Amino acid sequence: MRWTICHSNLFFLLLLYCGPNRGWVDAASRSCSNSPILLCEIIDDFAEDPLTDAPIEDEAYLIAGNQTTATTTTAIDWGSFKPIDLRTFFLYKTDPRTLDLSLEGSVRWRFPLVTNPQASHAMPHPILGFIVRINSTALDATKTYLTRLERPVDSISMNLSSIEFFVELSLLSLFNETYSIEVSFYPEGKNGRNTLIRETIKKPEKDVCGKETQDIAKSWVPSFGPLTVYEITADVEVEFLPAPTSLCITHYSLYIQSMSSSHILSYVMVNATGNETKLRHTFKSMPREEKLMIKLLAAEPSEEQCVCTHCRCITVKSNEFTIPKMVHRSN
Fold it and tell me: Which helix (H) or strand (E) holds 206?
């Protein structure tokens, strides 16, 4: 009997895996905060009401249920308060369809928490969320998202100087395009916003190894295929996608580790010629009834120049799994 583990997680990073596309893509992360006590959801294809001069006096303007229409007002003056540290974050992956290089992007920002109770009263209105607008110069179109908070962010008391928010989107996953990004408070007023121009990310030339390739390889995320466990032999077959040839990665370090003892049970360096569509290796006769995990990263052969900047390549890990004990039944 055999069974397959189909999921994997990024070691030290949390990502939303989306394939590259042309044009706007309705693919956003469902979570949008690093706070363990602040629930946050993302509303896609967010529609906005025209600006109104009516002041917000009570919670009648809050988003309720599945309503996705914003109420904005010029009556709110947010003063010096605004989202800070607005930036984009990119990682690279192998496109499983073309084996070419693809991008995964996210928009990130922070909100400084108000630790002085008297200063919190200076906020003209509770912050109920953030509106994210992303404009593509190539597509000449704008996509809008609302990150809706479970409760006002300025009402939180926690031992942090700020909370980070993020939206992970595949619409940023295009090479050779420029984006303008705006993040504003919800409800909107005449200020309380921050903007950023994301410069074009150029696609590297194929088979040209050097510093540019190393910088990209440092942010390349390996991708597992199915991990197949054979119960009778206790073998574990690992499948993964090779790096695009443009990254000059030809060696991969593959580990299987016991999570019970933290010991590395087996290690292999998998070599690639550049012609493979998938790479495989089988770990033989692994221990039963132990929590196991597979780890994978681009290898750094000691006799060669590092393929990643500062020799720091990203490691991915599989979900934990256990090979069950064989049960012999007598007739």
Answer: none
User: What superfamily would CATH give domain 210-322?
Assistant: Immunoglobulins (2.60.40.10)
Evaluate whether 169 touches 106 at the Cβ level (below 8 Å). Answer: yes
The single residue listed with the structure tokens 């597992």 is: 224
Give the pLDDT confidence of 159-171 residue by residue, as tens digits.
556 778 888 876 6
β-bridge mates for residue 109, sequence order: 165
**Per-residue DSSP letter, 207:** T
Mean pLDDT of 60-87: 61
Which CATH fold would you assign to the domain 14-198? Immunoglobulin-like (2.60.40)
Residue 291's pLDDT is 95
Q: Tokens 């929590």 identify what position?
A: 291
% the chain with pLDDT above 70: 67
CA-wise closest residue to 196 among 125, 106, 128, 68 = 106
**Alpha-carbon span 120 to 93, nearest angstrom:** 43
End-to-end CA distance of the chain: 20
Amino acid at position 248, single letter: C
Q: Which of 182, 209, 186, 185 is nearest to 196 (CA)?
A: 182
Task: Identify which of 85, 84, 57, 106 has the alpha carbon closest to the alpha carbon of residue 185.
Answer: 84
**Does residue 116 surpass a pLDDT of 80?**
no
d(CA 310, CA 39): 37
Equal CATH topology for 14-198 and 210-322:
yes
Whole-model pTM?
0.68
Radius of gyration of the chain (CA): 24
Amino acid at 169: L
